[in-house]
Specification:
This protein is of the alpha+beta class. It has a single domain, classed as PH-domain like (Roll), CATH 2.30.29.30. The protein is about 40% helix and about 30% strand. The protein is built from 4 helices and 7 strands; from the N terminus they run βααββββββαα. The strands form 2 sheets. Strands 1-2-3-4 form a 4-stranded antiparallel sheet, covered by helices on one side. Strand 3 and strand 4 form a beta hairpin. Helix 1 packs antiparallel against helix 2. The longest helix is centred in the first third of the chain and has 21 residues. The chain is elongated, with a radius of gyration of 19 Å. The two termini are about 30 Å apart.
Length: about 160
C-alpha cells in the first residue's frame, strides 16, 4: 500500500533561497536594530528553510495533497487539468480544479538555479496517477478545458 503514495518535494538547492533571504533580513536587521535584528533574521531564514522541506505535493489513492503554506486536498475527480509551463528561467507545475482555480505546486519544479532533471518525468507520473484515479464518473468541464493550453486539454 505504501507504493500507492508518491511524494514530490522541493529540491534542497531550491530551499536555499529561504536561508539566503534570512541572511539578508539578518544584515538589514543588524543595521537597523543591532544584534537582536540579526538574530531574528537568522531565525526567520532557518525556520523557512526547515519548513520548506515539507513543501511539494503528495499523491494518495484518494486525492492530491498540495503542501505549501497550507495543506490543500483535491480529490482526483475535482482536477480538470495538470500542466507545467516552461519559460527561460523556470518551469512551473500547475493543477487546475473544477472551479477553474490554478494551484501552483512548489514541487516538482525546475529553474536555471535549481535544476531538477527529472521534472518532466515527475509531472508525467502525477498526470498518469490522476488519469488512473479520477474515476469513471469524471467528466471534463468544457469551459475550463477550452481555457487550457491545447496540450493540457483532456481528449480521452
Amino acid at each position: 500500500m505504501a507504493s500507492e503514495i508518491r511524494t514530490y518535494r522541493m529540491v534542497p538547492r531550491a530551499r536555499l533561497m529561504f536561508a539566503l533571504a534570512g541572511l539578508v533580513i539578518a544584515v538589514i536587521g543588524f543595521l537597523m536594530v543591532g544584534p537582536l535584528g540579526a538574530l531574528v533574521g537568522v531565525l526567520v531564514g532557518g525556520v523557512l528553510y526547515l519548513w520548506s522541506a515539507a513543501w511539494g505535493c503528495t499523491c494518495t489513492p484518494e486525492s492530491l495533497v498540495i503542501d505549501s503554506v497550507r495543506h490543500t486536498k483535491l480529490a482526483w475527480s475535482e482536477i480538470q487539468g495538470i500542466d507545467y509551463s516552461i519559460s527561460r528561467l523556470a518551469t512551473t507545475a500547475t493543477i487546475i480544479d473544477q472551479r477553474g482555480k490554478v494551484w501552483i505546486l512548489r514541487a516538482p519544479t525546475t529553474s536555471a538555479f535549481t535544476p531538477d532533471p527529472l521534472m518532466k518525468k515527475k509531472m508525467t507520473e502525477i498526470e498518469n496517477y490522476w488519469k488512473a484515479r479520477r474515476g469513471t464518473s469524471w467528466t471534463p468541464n468544457r469551459d475550463i478545458q477550452s481555457a487550457l493550453k491545447p496540450w493540457a486539454r483532456v481528449n480521452d
